[in-house]
Every structure is written in C-alpha cells, then in structure tokens.
Specification:
Length: 125
C-alpha cells in the first residue's frame, strides 16, 4: 500500500484514480502528475516501484498544496470572510448557501433538517 501525503492509496485502483483520494488532487492534477512522472495511466498502485512512489511524492510536495495545509488555507479563507462581515462571510456564519442558490425551496443540505414553525399550520375549511 502506497502512502503519499499522509493518505493510504487503495492498491487495486489505477494510479490516476487512486491519487484523487488525496485532498486537493482532482482528475486533471492526477493526470498531470502521472505524465510528469512517466507512469502509464493503466498501471495500478500495487504495481508501482518504490522509485515511482518517491517521484510522485516529490512532485506533490514540490508543486501542490494538499491535505492538511490546503484544509488550513481554506478554513482560514472562510474565517477571514466571516471576520470581515461581508455578505459571503455572513452566509457562512448562518449556514446558508454562499453562491447565490435559491433557498425558498431546496438548500436542505446546507440548512439542515426542516423545522416546523409554531402556529403556521394550514387551516382547511
């Protein structure tokens, strides 16, 4: 099992897909890393030699901000927005969608479970 950037990569997956388990590496970056190291897309993680794993580690350490460092940067950016008191920071603070999505209906993932409002039951005749 290869361990890169503090993440155990799954053995049976292709290298391109396994690299995406690292926070901050998506499809495009995984393909770019494989091209830079000269590793074919069809190779699986358990087939990698120690030298190839070291080359991947070096490229990720040198060129990309991943895992803990990236999470810290993202959380600091959100905290900065909240401290500024700007609109986006206000939306983060209240737990509402930030990028202009509709909230009258939908947005349940961000707003949480629906809560009943007392006295707002529909009256039927």
């Amino acid at each position: 099992m290869a361990r890169i950037a503090g993440v155990n990569l799954p053995d049976k997956k292709h290298v391109v897909f396994a690299l995406r388990y690292i926070y901050g590496i998506g499809t495009a970056r995984a393909v770019r890393i494989c091209k830079e190291t000269g590793i074919p897309d069809s190779k699986r993680v358990f087939e990698l030699s120690e030298d190839e794993v070291m080359r991947i580690r070096e490229i990720i350490d040198r060129d990309y901000q991943v895992e803990g460092d990236l999470r810290r940067v993202v959380s600091m950016n959100v905290k900065r927005l909240m401290d500024l008191g700007c609109y986006r920071g206000f939306r983060h603070r209240k737990g509402l969608p930030v990028h202009g999505q509709r909230t009258h209906t939908n947005a349940r993932t961000r707003k949480g479970k629906a809560r009943a409002i007392p006295g707002k039951k529909k009256v039927t005749k």
